[in-house]
Amino acid sequence: MIVRISGEDQYELADADAARLNELENAVVAVVDSGGEDGFDEAYGALIEFVRSQGKPIAEDELEASDHILPPPDLTFAEAGAEFTGEGLIPD
Amino acid sequence: MAGLTGRMSTVVKAKVSKLLDRAEDPAETLDYSYQKQVEQLQNVKKGIADVVTAKKRLQMQESSLQQSVVKLDTQARQAVAAGQEDLARAALERKNVAQTELQSLDTQVTELEDQQQKLTDSEQKLRAKIEAFRTKKEVIKAQYSAAEAQVRISEAATGVGEQMADVGLAMQRAVDKTENMRARADAVQELEAAGTFDDLTALGPGEDDIDKQLKQLSSQPAVDDELAKMKGEIGAGGAPAAGQIPSQSQTPAEGKQT
């Protein structure tokens, strides 16, 4: 499967990594839903780091669509809670 | 996959399909997509130029503030040496404000540099994807029937469209950050225009408003400490010569309404 880290690169990950990716993402969502900022940077950092370390970067001249798109690595807690719910961060 | 990733993916895919839905036949889709891609690349270049301009503006303010800090420090020393403690204190208060502004500008210049680097990287990636799309477009035109071509074009355009949407996102974040910094730069400029960092010796009795604002802005203990240190260094322990300087408390801006 192909995963994009927004603002960075696309990575090719083994399909077997999907479960772990899902777990890490659920951990981030749990922090956001709890409404407290504590642990957000750590949880989100772990998700990004997993993709970077497990994935193989896709060449810049390849035209692949991603299966999953992660928000930018410098995503803030406020952005995670608010702006990604709508179209706020992506212009037309 | 739900949550953040799901939301991001949905939004990006919606943008991409909106792009593709505008054209009916394969040739039109190719031309339209390619034209959009080239336009987007121009926008990215413009965005980078804006960030560079904002950064230069902040850097110019930095160097002018640095000069003010040196000047005010010299004036404070001269005032201490002359036993004019009030004047020295006023100069140090201003120096304190200038230094605080300098620190904040420094952080922002670093942030803008970071944004500039990110956008430059994004531009290179988008350029590579567009070039790959251009090559693929020629292959599609030459090798495939209309029906097949439509499918292949969609695949290729989705890949490059996703990159475009993503660069658009990076651009918007950079523009937002640049806007914040522009507001900050304007605030510093207002301080300069108000004479906050001007030559103190040129001040007349009418400038008390600025002094009042400065007292609120600057941290008093830091000014006290620095003044004490300066006095120790210069060794001018004598009492300030009364009557030589217009004391702020004695000269409220008479008749001046704000």
What would your notes on this structure say?
The complex is a heterodimer of chains A (92) and B (258). By secondary structure, chain A is of the alpha+beta class. Helix content of chain A is 40%, strand content 13%. In chain A, β1 and β2 form a beta hairpin. The C terminus of chain A is likely disordered. By secondary structure, chain B is an all-alpha fold. In chain B, 80% of the residues lie in helices and 0% in strands. Chain B is rod-shaped. The N and C termini of chain B lie far apart (59 Å). The interface between A and B is large, with 33 and 38 residues.
Please trace the helix and strand order of chain B, writing H or E for each element. HHHHHH
Helicity range of the residues of chain B? Answer: over 70%
Low-confidence stretches of chain B: 237-258
- Strand tally of chain B: 0
Structural class of chain B: mainly alpha
Biggest sheet of chain A: strands side by side, in what order? 3-2-1-4
**How big is the Rg of chain B?**
30 Å
**How many helical stretches of chain B?**
6
Overview in brief:
The complex is a heterodimer of chains A (92) and B (258). By secondary structure, chain A is an alpha+beta fold.
Give a topology summary.
The complex is a heterodimer of chains A (92) and B (258).
Chain A: E1 2-5, E2 10-12, H1 18-34, H2 40-54, E3 56-57, E4 68-70, H3 77-81
Parallel strand pairs in A: 1-4
Antiparallel strand pairs in A: 1-2, 2-3
Helix pairs in contact in A: 1-2
Chain B: H1 3-21, H2 26-81, H3 85-143, H4 146-193, H5 208-217, H6 220-234
